[in-house]
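Morning run. Coffee first, then this:
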Amino acid sequence: MTNPHPAPPKPVPNPARTPSPGLAFREHDHTTCALDILARAEALTGAAGARLTPVRRRTLEILLEAHAALGAYEVLDRLAADGFGRQPPVAYRALEFLVEHGLAHRIRRMNAFAACMHPGEAHQPVFLICRGCNAVAEAPAGGVRPALDAAAHLAGFTVERASIEALGLCPQCRAAA
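And here it is:
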C-alpha cells in the first residue's frame, strides 16, 4: 500500500547528540528530536543490513510523536489510518523489528511500546512513567545500573538484562494535582 504521508527529508545523523534525560517532560524542539532519532534509526538499520521499511518507519514516527508509550492496537489504528492495513501482524511485526534493533522498548508495566531515545548506544533503560498522562521519559541508567549490579554481586547474582520502570508524576501533572 502507498503511504499518503511522504516522509520528511532525512537529516544527517548526529550520533553525538543524545536527547537529555526527561526530555518528554520538558519543552524542547520536538521536530529536531524526532528527526535525529529517525536519522539514527536509518543509519543503524542500514549498518545492520536491515531496512527501515515504510511501515517500520511510520511505526517509529508514531512512537516518537508524543513521547508516550502506546499499545500495539493504538499503533495499529494509526497505521491503518495511514493506509498500512488493519491486520494486527502489521503492527506487531513492525514493533518487534524496532525492539530487536534497539529502536524501541517494551514498557511491560503498560503493555506498550516507546521509542528508544538512545538508539545505537549500549544501555539499560530506565523509564520514568507519568501515571497522570502516561508520558514516558527514558533516562540514562548511569547511576541506577551500578547500584543494581552491586546489589546483585552481593547476592552472587549476575544481571544479564534489566529494564527499570519508575511510576510517578511529570511536572505538568504534579502542578495540576
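The chain has one domain: 23-176. Good start to the day.
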